[in-house]
Amino acid sequence: MPDEKSLEDKTKEREEEDLTSSEEDEEEEVLDQSSSSESKEIKKLREEAKRWRLRAKENKAAVAKAAEAEKRLVDAENKAQSALAEVQKIQTISDKRIIEAEVRSLAAEFGLRKIEYARLGSGFEKLKVREDGSVEGAREMFEKLKQSDPELFKGVTTTNTNFQGNVKGVDKPEKKVLNMNKEDYAKAEAQFLKEASRR
């Protein structure tokens, strides 16, 4: 029986060896499959990592371009603001000149004695230039000034009841030419020619 036992043992050993070798083969296949699937997975991960690195480089370039564009935008805005400030400064100077010209013109029209008196008018600081170039409120200011202070204007007589002198050249009232007789007309003509020759 020892032979049978040894035979059985040998058979068992062989079966175990076969099992073991077949398990090892299976394991190797699984390992091969897993290593090939792992290598496929690793390849995929490497490709994905490569894509992300490329995207990161593109993003860095895009971020750099965006920063450059932002810098150019800020520069352009600063230039626009300084240009606008310059235009407003020129507009203010232009408006002052237009107001001064209009005030001078109206001062001559209204017979203002001195141009400085125009600054006395209420509303001088409020004068504005309209879009059409005319000055808003200038004429009204002169009219109010003439009503409130008529002595500032030429040709305006004030009523002074205490006057007791003689105004030069106004000794007697002048006669109208149509109401003169020939003698008075000849005297007035001679007087006129005499005064005209002196000038």
Q: Helix segment count?
A: 3
The global form is rod-shaped
Question: Taking Cα atoms only, what radius of gyration do you get, to the nearest Å?
Answer: 57 Å
Strand order of the largest sheet: 1-2
How many extended strands? Answer: 2
**What is the element string, with H for helices and E for strands?**
HEEHH
Distance between the termini: 176 Å
What share of the residues lie within helices?
Answer: 55-70%
Structural class: mainly alpha
Strand content: under 5%
Report the uncertain regions. none
Describe the structure in your own words.
- The chain is 69% helix and 2% strand.
- The chain has 199 residues and is mostly helical.
- The radius of gyration is 57 Å and the shape is rod-shaped.
- Strand 1 and strand 2 form a beta hairpin.
Summarize this structure briefly.
This protein is 69% helix and 2% strand. It has helices at residues 2-110, 138-148, 182-198; strands spanning 128-129, 135-136.
Keywords summarizing the entry:
mainly alpha, 199 residues, 2 strands, 3 helices
